[in-house]
Structures are given as structure tokens and as C-alpha cells.
Amino acid sequence: MRYINRFFSGMVLFLVIHMTYASSFVNTWVNQETNRPEITRIDVIDSKEVKQIQVFASCAESVCDWGVVKASESEGGFNAVYEFGFKTVQLELSPLDDRLQVSIFTDYHDGRPSTRNDYTLSR
């Protein structure tokens, strides 16, 4: 009985830590770097235990909404993929103190070389 109690206590602790860690992502994250305005904002949404993200990026004269996609949990954070036809954009999101570290990998399907850009967003 003692071992069962320890097991369940450990499981409860794991779940509490995991839920707290995952919920720390849920927020509106803003790019404060005015010299790198490509990504202006990322919303991390918690919808029935499923993480989703919505990216807002600079366009010619406005802000473009990339839409909402499902984010999958990965080691140390979350990943999400946007398909645009001419390119595939993969995002890796991970906490960095009270900020969000975002790495964006863009694979172009029209012959341009792939790119990587890193951003640090604030709440």
C-alpha cells in the first residue's frame, strides 16, 4: 500500500508540474524588436488540453494573420507547422525565463534557399 501511495503521489506531482509548465505558454507574446518586425505577435491558445498557436506577421502595409494551427508538444516546448503552398514554415517555441524563444524554419518550394530566424518575444 505504501508503494502505491508513493506511485500516485509521484504521478500527481508530475501532472501538476507538467500542467503548470504547459500553461505557462498560454499567453499573447509580442515581438519588442523594432528592427526585426517580421513576426509581430504569437498567441498561444489552450483549447481543451490542445495547444494551438496563431501567428501575426508584418505584411506590405498591414499585419497578416497566419491563422490558428495545432501545436505539438516537444522536448522543452512546442512545435507548429504552417503550409503556405510555396513554403512550409516550422516554428519551435520554448520558454526562456519570462519570455518565449521562437525559432522559425522556412522551407521554400520555389527554389529559394531555406532560412532560419530566431526571435525572443515578451508577454
Can you offer a commentary on this structure?
The chain is of the alpha+beta class and 123 residues long. The chain has a single domain (26-122), classed as Lipocalin, CATH 2.40.128. It is 18% helix and 56% strand. The protein has one helix and nine strands; from the N terminus they run H-E-E-E-E-E-E-E-E-E. It has one helix at 2-23, and strands at 27-31, 39-47, 50-58, 63-70, 72-74, 77-83, 87-96, 99-108, 115-122. A nine-stranded antiparallel beta sheet has the order 4-3-2-1-9-8-7-6-5, with no helix packed on it. Strand 1 (27-31) and strand 2 (39-47) form a beta hairpin. The longest helix has 22 residues, at 2-23. The radius of gyration is 17 Å and the shape is globular. The model is unreliable at 10-22 (pLDDT under 50).
Q: Could you give the order of the helices and strands? A: HEEEEEEEEE
Say how many strands there are.
9
Strand content: over 45%
- CATH classification class: Mainly Beta
Low-confidence stretches: 10-22
What is the name of the CATH architecture? Beta Barrel
Number of domains: 1
Structure class: alpha+beta
Average pLDDT, to the nearest integer? 83
* Rg, nearest Å: 17 Å
Question: What proportion of the residues is helical, as a percent range?
Answer: 10-25%
Biggest pleated sheet:
9 strands, antiparallel
CATH topology: Lipocalin
Dominant shape: globular
* N-end to C-end Cα span: 45 Å
Strand order of the largest sheet: 4-3-2-1-9-8-7-6-5
